[in-house]
Amino acid sequence: MKFLCLICAEKVMEQMETADADSHYAEYAKFTEDIRASGHYISCNRLLPPSEATTIRVRNGKVSATDGPWIETKEQLGGYFLIEARDLNEAIRIASRIPGAARGCVEIRPVAEDEQTVTALGFDKHP
């Protein structure tokens, strides 16, 4: 099963002191190396701060775009890991080692792989 691990924290890298951010990057490098070696890794990335976000809405066929996140919150979405795990328990064990879990939280969501989703999104077609 695939799980998306959404990493939230009160501070993203750009908001940290340089030494603290450097240390955090090193923790992530080690964690990523470990889950690549274990075969659980699919992909990951860091997100730029909410100040770089754009939120769009479509109402009655009209698109509106606003700067920033769509909700005010203390914690910010800072990045993600897409992992492969046998089940939720294994996903929890893996996600608990994500460095951001010690500073904020990690939300784990199963990725939909049902037939209707796969067909609708074209995953069953080869390019």
Notes on the protein architecture:
The protein is of the alpha+beta class. Helices cover about 30% and strands about 30% of the residues. The chain is built from three helices and six strands. The protein has a four-stranded antiparallel beta sheet with strand order 2-5-1-6, covered by helices on one side. β3 (about 55-60) and β4 form a beta hairpin. The radius of gyration is 17 Å and the shape is flat. The model has no long low-confidence stretch (mean pLDDT about 90).
Features:
single chain; 127 residues; alpha+beta; four-stranded antiparallel β-sheet; two-stranded antiparallel ribbon; 3 helices; flat
Quick recap:
The chain has 127 residues and is of the alpha+beta class. The chain has helices spanning 18-38, 88-95, 115-120; strands at 2-9, 41-46, 54-59, 62-67, 76-84, 105-110. It contains three helices and six strands.
